[in-house]
Task: inverse folding
């Protein structure tokens, strides 16, 4: 494997005729990083991945490995020469070859001596716990096993970049979690630079060093899982990582003081207080002043877990009526409406023993209310 | 998703079974008996002995094989790359496919007559070749092996093409991508991944084509030299039936044809099972 | 990368052009021959005449030939589908012991030359007074056609997942409805492919029709071959004329079927 320091994608754009699938996509991968492209169906994450592999030609932009340009939309290094590995959603194992032959496929192409091929294949199969399956055919194996073979087939070649296109989507829930652990531990052991594509935010949060959130071909936010989770950049990202309670309203009152910006927001259902705090050096502090004025249209976002049920004092207390209670084991997922205003929905998650029709008080700490400027249409 | 048959399903097979038994198995059995009988009705191996004892008759076997085998290889061999190239659809594929299957509508006589004119010494093809200075004098395309071969090949190719295109376009495209990512170029991807998965289709296509080619008769008569180098085995059978009126011997020759065809098919299927030990699923996850 | 693409495209185009060129060349020369007089050399015929068609018309009862050919072909395809489709359905959807054997039995008529069973079959037809009649021609030509249809239909039926039929059943559809509203529409490309390919095959099948030919049940291919073999007894242009008529019949059928199925849908797979 030829060594490298970083891979950079610069202003990658891919259009299919009139439709732009990926728009001005730029990112740099450091060595050993685990980066995830996260987004809903059709957001361009798979397309971006395929562009990086070289399997589809790019419309404009450049891809560099260190200083070597491997694709500038006019000339490109073909995929078979990039030394990248790819794991597909539907495994793409060669049905006419055994597991051993599948894993050895790339090694044989490099004309390595037989002994070395056998050794490396054995090591790879051991790594994915499939040594005893070496002589089986893909059709005789389960989905999870096939995917592990696919992974072994890639890593045996020690690729510079490992790309995985929704590799766990075709597996059942339990298997998904199991294989996720295996992928994480593989990454820790082998330290391969990895690009992972998924629509599942829990996968992204669990596996990544950095997450790139995409919507309709454009990057919405790039950051660590913590940053994405606690500090989503816009309403879309917030919704995608699990924030609910997106209430539209207008800022009624703004107060600055004590290092934070307090906003009172009038929505259909209630008056909500939010406290937006950024450390002094954070550039977003300055942006706040321009983004929010009295009268600005905004949308809130609150995690269901941050809304508490029961008697509370203080700001942001609402009287609600529960009209959907989902038992989830250690907590209930409750959907309620603000008493007197059917359209204002409150989604919370609480261990409180609520039932359908119960009246209760819900409250949320102003510091846990996210506010996003509404640029008309969200 | 297949299951064990329910009553209804087996009933559906009855018309076909009746049909085959009545109109094929029974006559074929009759034919087999005929081939082993003398005109007066007694059992004999004479019909076969006479064929194998006669040098001129026996020679029809290598002659016919010499036409059928290479032509089938060529027809299937042309269908493979063409269908590979068109596997993901190309511009104008409807028109191209249409023209590729047009020969099924022509019929042997038109092809023969057409080849005699078009590819004859004064025909357009030679005129073109002469005009382009590719040859010095007209090329002899007809009245011999080449003519028969082209005619037979042209009539069999459309079926091979349609079948192989069906096969190759059914192969999961991700397999090609995976192969590329593992370091294989297009050539290697074709031979190591696509071709093995096309083997079942190639095998069946070869068998069907071979059978059509081996029974060649009109092409040999109209384009070749049927009394000499292109005396094919079907011709021997016809002559026995309609010139010598020895139906027993004619049927015997047909049985020999059947045996040879079955033997070749067995060889092809053996090759296929050797090449394709793996699963029968063509890679759809 | 761009260069490599060009070479394979060039090669492909060259092969296609050569192929199409030969096919068109063959068709055109025969067509021109059939309407020309004394065209032995040179690029184009010097005179155009319809006399060869008149000759052929005088030689054969052309309308009768065309009528019989069409009748036989369409009847064969129709009856063939009625026999082959249920069989293909049963074979595609079920597994049972001896299935491979049964399938081989069904496919046998395609492998065995017509002569091996043709003469006894012809004798059988004579016995039941079918020989010399159009019905006889229909019956004997069915024998190679039904296996071919089964072969083509099976993968098309397999493609229509059995779960679609299960879903329809759950929605309350009876067998007949499932058949009419789901199975038939979805397998239409397969039926049409099997149909059109069998149609042109049936038009071209000579051996069996010849064996029971008599009076009025000749198809055009039998007349054509008889003419072609009697070399010298007829002017070649008259043979060409008849060949063109044959070709036009087959081509018409192909073109009509293309209204319902596109060439790219005719692609079939055999498991």
Result:
């Amino acid at each position: 494997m030829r060594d490298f320091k970083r891979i950079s994608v610069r202003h990658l754009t891919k259009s299919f005729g009139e439709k732009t699938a990926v728009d001005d996509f730029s990112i740099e991968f450091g060595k050993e990083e685990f980066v995830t492209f996260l987004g809903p169906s059709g957001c361009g994450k798979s397309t971006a991945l395929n562009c990086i592999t070289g399997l589809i030609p790019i419309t404009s932009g450049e891809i560099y490995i260190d200083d070597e340009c491997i694709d500038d939309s006019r000339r490109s290094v073909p995929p078979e020469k990039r030394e990248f590995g790819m794991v597909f959603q539907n495994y793409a194992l060669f049905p006419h070859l055994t597991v051993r032959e599948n894993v050895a496929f790339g090694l044989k192409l490099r004309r390595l001596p037989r002994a070395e091929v056998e050794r490396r294949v054995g090591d790879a199969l051991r790594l994915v716990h499939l040594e005893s399956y070496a002589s089986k055919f893909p059709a005789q194996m389960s989905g999870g096993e096939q995917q592990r073979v696919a992974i072994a087939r890639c890593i045996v070649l020690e690729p510079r970049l490992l790309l995985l296109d929704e590799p766990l989507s075709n597996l059942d829930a339990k298997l998904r979690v199991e294989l996720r652990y295996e992928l994480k531990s593989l990454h820790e052991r082998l330290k391969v630079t990895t690009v992972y594509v998924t629509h599942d935010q829990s996968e992204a949060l669990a596996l990544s060093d950095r997450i790139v959130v995409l919507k309709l071909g454009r990057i919405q936010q790039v950051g660590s899982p913590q940053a994405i989770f606690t500090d989503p950049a816009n309403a879309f990202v917030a919704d995608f990582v699990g924030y609910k309670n997106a209430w539209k309203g207008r800022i009624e009152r703004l107060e600055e003081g004590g290092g934070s910006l307090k906003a009172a927001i009038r929505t259909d259902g209630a008056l909500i207080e939010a406290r937006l705090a950024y450390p002094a050096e954070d550039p977003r502090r300055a942006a706040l002043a321009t983004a929010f004025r009295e009268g600005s249209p905004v949308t809130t976002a609150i995690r269901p877990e941050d809304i508490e049920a029961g008697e509370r004092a203080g700001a942001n207390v609402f009287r609600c009526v529960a009209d959907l209670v989902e038992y989830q084991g250690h907590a209930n997922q409750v959907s309620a409406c603000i008493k007197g205003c059917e359209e204002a929905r409150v989604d919370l998650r609480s261990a409180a023993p609520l039932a359908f029709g119960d009246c209760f008080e819900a409250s949320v700490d102003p510091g846990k209310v996210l506010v996003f400027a509404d640029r008309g249409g969200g | 998703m297949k299951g064990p048959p329910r009553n209804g399903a087996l009933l559906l097979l009855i018309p076909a079974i009746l049909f085959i038994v009545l109109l094929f198995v029974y006559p074929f059995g009759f034919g087999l008996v005929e081939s082993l009988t003398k005109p007066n009705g007694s059992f004999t191996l004479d019909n076969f002995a006479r064929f194998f004892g006669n040098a001129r008759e026996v020679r029809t076997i290598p002659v016919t094989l010499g036409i059928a085998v290479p032509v089938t290889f060529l027809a299937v061999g042309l269908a493979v790359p063409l269908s590979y190239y068109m596997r993901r659809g190309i511009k104008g594929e409807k028109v191209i496919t249409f023209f590729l299957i047009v020969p099924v509508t022509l019929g042997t006589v038109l092809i023969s007559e057409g080849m005699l004119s078009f590819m004859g010494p004064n025909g357009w093809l030679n005129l073109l070749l002469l005009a382009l200075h590719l040859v010095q004098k007209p090329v002899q395309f007809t009245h011999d092996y080449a003519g028969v071969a082209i005619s037979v090949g042209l009539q069999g190719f459309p079926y091979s093409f349609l079948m192989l295109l069906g096969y190759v376009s059914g192969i999961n495209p991700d397999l090609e991508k995976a192969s590329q990512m593992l370091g294989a170029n297009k050539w290697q991807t074709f031979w190591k991944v696509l071709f093995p998965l096309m083997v079942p289709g190639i095998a069946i296509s070869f068998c069907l084509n071979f059978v059509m080619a081996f029974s060649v008769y009109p092409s040999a008569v109209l384009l070749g030299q049927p009394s000499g180098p292109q005396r094919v085995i079907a011709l021997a059978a016809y002559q026995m039936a309609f010139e010598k009126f020895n139906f027993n011997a004619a049927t015997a020759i047909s049985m020999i044809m059947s045996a040879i065809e079955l033997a070749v098919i067995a060889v092809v299927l053996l090759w296929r099972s050797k090449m394709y030990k793996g699963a029968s699923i063509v890679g759809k996850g | 990368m761009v260069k490599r693409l060009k070479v394979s495209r060039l090669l492909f185009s060259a092969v296609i052009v050569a192929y199409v060129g030969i096919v068109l060349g063959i068709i055109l020369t025969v067509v021109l021959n059939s309407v020309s007089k004394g065209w032995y050399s040179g690029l184009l015929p010097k005179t155009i005449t319809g006399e060869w068609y008149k000759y052929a018309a005088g030689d054969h009862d052309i309308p009768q030939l065309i009528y019989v050919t069409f009748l036989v072909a369409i009847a064969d395809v129709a009856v063939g589908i009625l026999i082959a489709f249920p069989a293909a359905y049963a074979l595609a959807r079920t597994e049972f012991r001896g299935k491979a054997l049964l399938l081989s039995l069904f496919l046998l008529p395609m492998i065995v030359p017509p002569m091996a069973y043709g003469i006894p079959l012809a004798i059988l037809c004579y016995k039941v007074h079918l020989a010399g009649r159009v019905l006889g021609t229909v019956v004997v030509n069915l024998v190679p056609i039904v296996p071919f249809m089964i072969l083509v239909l099976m993968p098309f039926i397999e493609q229509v997942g059995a779960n679609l039929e299960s879903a329809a059943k759950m929605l309350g559809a009876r067998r007949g409805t499932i058949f009419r509203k789901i199975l038939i529409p979805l397998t239409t490309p397969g039926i049409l492919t099997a149909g059109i390919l069998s149609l042109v095959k049936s038009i071209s099948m000579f051996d069996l029709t010849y064996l029971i030919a008599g009076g009025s049940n000749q198809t055009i291919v039998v007349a054509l071959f008889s003419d072609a073999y009697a070399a010298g007894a007829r002017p070649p242009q008259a043979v060409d004329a008849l060949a063109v008529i044959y070709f036009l019949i087959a081509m018409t059928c192909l073109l009509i079927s293309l209204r319902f199925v596109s060439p790219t849908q005719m692609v079939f797979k055999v498991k």
In short: Residues 82 and 190 of chain C are 14 Å apart (CA to CA). The longest helix of chain C spans residues 2-34. Chain C has two domains: 1-49, 51-266.
